[in-house]
Amino acid sequence: MEKERNLLLFCLILCCSSLLPRVSSSGGGLGKASPLKRLFVFGDSYADTGNTEKSSGAWHPPYGSTFPGEPSGRFSDGLVLTDYIASFLGIKSPQPYTWRNDVNKTLLQHGMNFAYGGTGVFDTMAREPNMTAQIDCFQSLVEQNVYTEHDLSSSIALVSLAGNDYAAFAMKNGNREELPAFITSVIDQLVHNLKRIRGLGVRKIAVTALQPLGCLPQLTAVSSFKNCSSSWNSITRLHNHQLHRSLQELKKNESIMGSSSSLSSLVVLDLHSAFVSALHMLQHQSGKSSEKPLKPCCVGAKEGYSCGNVGDKGVKNYVLCDHPETSFFWDNIHPSQNGWRVVSSFLHSSLSHLL
Ligand SMILES: *[C@@H]1O[C@H](CO)[C@@H](O)[C@H](O)[C@H]1NC(C)=O
Ligand SMILES: *[C@@H]1O[C@H](CO)[C@@H](O)[C@H](O)[C@H]1NC(C)=O
Ligand SMILES: *[C@@H]1O[C@H](CO)[C@@H](O)[C@H](O)[C@H]1NC(C)=O
Ligand SMILES: *[C@@H]1O[C@H](CO)[C@@H](O)[C@H](O)[C@H]1NC(C)=O
To answer: Domain with 119 in it: what CATH number?
Structure first.
């Protein structure tokens, strides 16, 4: 345990201290209209495109089987939220932060992805950097002038918070009476993080509202993927309500302070509505009303096993659906590429406020 902690500390220091050359083109912005060129990403597995450690399931088959055809560190059979948002913005999906010294440096012009699967605003079960530590890494790059002020002011930040803090809360504590105060502390920390990202020069931020947690396969498995958990969905409701309220307050505070330019620069990507709409759409498209829309494509063969689990002699302890391209969920927690494709189509109108 102590050893692990030292390792993590070591990694964090290492992560934040390696020098990178400036990636900005020196004549940036001259003459040409300057569309958004960069995406900086913070958060968890809904946004991670390869930072997660190699022992993670996302680096094992059948993850990545649709795209790129092998595991890529994405928690899906293919593309995830970050990829679809980058595509909508007309840029390449930003490189994972952990690859920054190994890739062609010109790729860093598209921004960087600091998200790690399993993390939250607070420490969770995952040992990877929480959102504060992710922003610390970003800050140290900014302080090294890897990106210019102009680069940053024309960038967008994507912040994903999909509920690992609540999973950790349930596992560690589970005391329902303390839940409302915990939700408030999550939102306060999240809003603090958003202010920090803006303070570092990124003026445009898209932050996710929680998806319906109670409808994740992890929680619907007990009803054979039929019924959502109303208690987990009420966490989503409370979280999203408080998020909207805090962001309204933030905007009000800022308009009092006269910084009206920032008023439209913070948008919520409403994953709750998008998941509900996408599930509804896919269910009706499939034309087979008997199909269970909440059932994931990749499931453990027995209780205790999960997608990607392989036993002795390479025996697969999981079962795959025949058509991942029509599924919504890939595994117990994450949408499939198809799921993300449809979900992101419902986010375009919010995102367009940032353009
Ligand atoms: C890096 O990528 C750019 C653009 O794709 C290319 O022009 C350049 O030659 C590459 N540099 C190296 C060292 O591979
Ligand atoms: C985030 O992680 C760092 C390093 O492990 C820790 O010191 C800090 O307390 C954590 N921050 C929050 C808000 O949990
Ligand atoms: C699922 O919901 C239906 C309709 O609300 C209800 O009749 C049924 O008992 C529920 N099943 C389980 C396993 O909770
Ligand atoms: C808005 O301003 C009030 C008064 O200064 C402060 O207490 C509050 O935390 C601010 N809210 C946000 C979301 O920044």
So the answer is: 3.40.50
Is the minimum distance from the CB of 227 to ligand 3 under 6 angstroms?
Answer: yes
Pocket of ligand 2 (CB under 6 A): 122-123, 130, 132-133, 189
Decide if 59 is inside a domain: yes
The residue segments making up the domain with residue 142 are: 2-286
Report the candidate in 121, 332, 43 with the shortest Cα–Cα distance to residue 215: 332
- CA of 222: how far to CAs of 174, 214, 232, 279, in Å? 19, 12, 14, 19
- The Cα-based distances of 116 to 20, 43, 178 in angstroms read 21, 6, 27
pLDDT in tens, 148-166: 999 999 899 999 999 999 9
Count of domains forming the chain: 1
pTM, whole model, 2 decimals? Answer: 0.89
pLDDT band, residue 25 (cuts 50/70/90): very low
Residues having CB within 6 Å of any atom of ligand 4: 191, 246, 249-250, 253
Q: Which atom of ligand 3 is nearest to the CA of 222?
A: 13
What residues are annotated to the active site?
45, 331, 334
Domain membership of residue 328 (yes or no) is no
If you take atom 1 of ligand 3, which residue's CA is the nearest one? 227
pLDDT score at 18: 42
- Interhelix angle 164-172/230-256, rounded to 10 degrees, is 130
DSSP character string of 256-298? HTT-GGGTTSEEEEEHHHHHHHHHHHHHHHH--TTS-TTS-SE
Q: What per-residue confidence (pLDDT) applies to 272?
A: 98
pLDDT of 121 strictly over 60? yes
DSSP string, 9-52: HHHHHHHHH------S-TTTTSSS-----EEEEESSTTT-SS-S
Is ligand 3 within 6 A of the CB of residue 284?
no
Query: Is residue 187 a part of any domain in this protein?
Result: yes
- Residue 174: pLDDT band (50, 70, 90) is confident
**Is 330 inside a domain boundary?**
no
Alpha carbon distance 62, 309 (integer Å): 9
Q: Residue 155 pairs with which residues in a beta bridge?
A: 38
Q: Provide, rounded to the nearest whole percent, the portion of the chain with pLDDT above 70.
A: 86
Q: Is residue 346 helix, strand or coil?
A: coil
